[in-house]
Design goal:
By secondary structure, the chain is α+β, with helices and mostly antiparallel strands. It contains five helices and three strands, in the order ααβααββα. The protein is globular.
């Protein structure tokens, strides 16, 4: 994992709502955007923006299936990130 990717992950996890989204995705192992919007007291556009930042960091990936987009945590990226943090 290069420093640029690490910085993107740190930045993505620098907001409490994004940390909550990642925790939620880890707990249920998959989710659709609409369900995430129902869990948090934010608008669809706000949640979409948070998901976009998480996807750009690589820690969350999404898959379009018909009219729905399924999001999940990229466990490989998360594990690499955890290994890096453990070296600090």
């Amino acid at each position: 994992m290069n420093l640029e990717q690490l910085a993107k992950i740190f930045k993505a996890l620098g907001h409490p709502t994004r940390i909550k989204i990642v925790r939620h995705l880890i707990e249920i192992d998959t989710c659709i955007c609409g369900e995430i919007v129902g869990i948090f007291p934010y608008s669809q556009s706000t949640i979409s923006q948070h998901l976009k930042i998480l996807k750009e960091s690589g820690i969350v990936c999404g898959e379009v299936e018909g009219p729905k987009t399924y999001f999940c945590v990229d466990k490989t990226v998360l594990e690499q990130f955890k290994q890096y943090v453990n070296t600090l």
